[in-house]
Design a protein that fits this description.
alpha+beta; 40% helix; globular; 5-stranded mixed sheet
Amino acid sequence: MNPQMISIADVLRPGKDVSRSSPWPHAIVGTELWQTLCNGLADGRWTLLDLWAEPDQVHLALWDAAGATGGLASLACAGDYPAVSRSVAPALRLERAISDLHGIEPLGMPDRRPWLDHGRWGVRHPLGARAPAPDTGAPYDFLPVEGPELHQISVGPVHAGIIEPGHFRFTASGETVVRLEQRLGYVHKGTESLMIGKPLQDAARLAGRVSGDSTVAYAFAFARAVEAAAGVTAPPRAQWLRALMAELERVANHLGDIGAVCNDASFALLHAHCGILREQVLRTSFACFGHRLMMDRVVPGGVAVDLPAGGATRIRALVADIRARWPQLVEVYDSTASLQDRTVNTGIVKPELARRFGAGGFVGRSAGRAFDARRTPGYAPYDALRFEVPVLAQGDVNARVWLRIRETEQSLSLIEQILGGLPAGATVEALPASGAASEGTALVESFRGDVFAWVRLAADGTVARCRLRDPSWFQWPLLVESAVEGNIIADFPLCNKSFNCSYSGHDL
């Protein structure tokens, strides 16, 4: 049989099945099967979804595109395990984070520098053995670069605008970027640690704050994972209201990003117009759901608020207003030569790299990777809605702008369909207060890409463990190690905004 035709479930079958895990297969494996999975990642048979740990085991989540499903493998370890990053580069940052948080060493990992730990916590391995550590703040060892007439430029972690902290170290030859290294972890919040033992209501609030611009998507993913673990299905009306909020969130962020990219290309006109439309979306969200970002509105079992009387009319008016202004704004972007000169062929991500890194959202789809979690594996109510998944191949700043443009148009259509088909009925289903320990997994499409959620519930109904993975884990490396290389330093803000990766979502 062709190895490419073997499903992830078949590969995991020799392992010990984890009972009460839904909806994907989950097996405890040995080192031989672990290496088989790594080999499958290396040859492109599967895509890395996530890699995380507990004090005594490491977990690997994979996506099987051929079978349109995922799978999870867990390897028991006593301090070390065979590094996945030997097989696939996207695992490297995840493994460095595992080493920082748990003290579990990936054997053969090509880069052993700390990632999230800046030497300021006062403790080492806070999710593992928790050894006291002095507040050293030792300097980070950036990789050396050799060559004639090279110079370095440091940017951040404090930036000029209202933006999260991150440090960028440029090595340049004249104005051309030769190497760019990144240092993150400045907004590490200890979310995984805070989740342990929390009641579902409190844990849901934490999930919605992993990355505030994607609060609906994170709450959506966490809720679906909890519901999978508990064997509960949210009421149909709640599922449709979740999608309505998710699409409003997508439109608001895409409008903000399109304007911001244009602003970084010194074209403030579109920034102003997009900012006005984004503000209208946020005000409508507040009027209909009581919060501009709709934070804490999606909860395990359903939604916390219903659409008020007149809410549908107000959202329809918003959609009509955006549709009326949209064609002219798109035409201005497409016909402004000075703007096109900055965005076309700038910051290119090659399709092969997008596929290898499993890049989601507009970063992946603008470089030919046609993956959208709403479509595959899919989840309610998107299976009952009509929408296209736009895909381009150029992979440059311009393509990422056009992806946002097309996805905004699709979201407007989805909002209209949701309002037209919104079912009546309850908005929340009660979850059992206790029961056998169980696990649930979910994949939800945020405006930025796919958010992965894994939750283990304790017998008393609290969260035993939770893992939330932001799409930025697989997008940041493409920005700093591929897209920016060979461009001029002045184009970095443009490239950076066209990616709009999350600092907070990455730093946990």
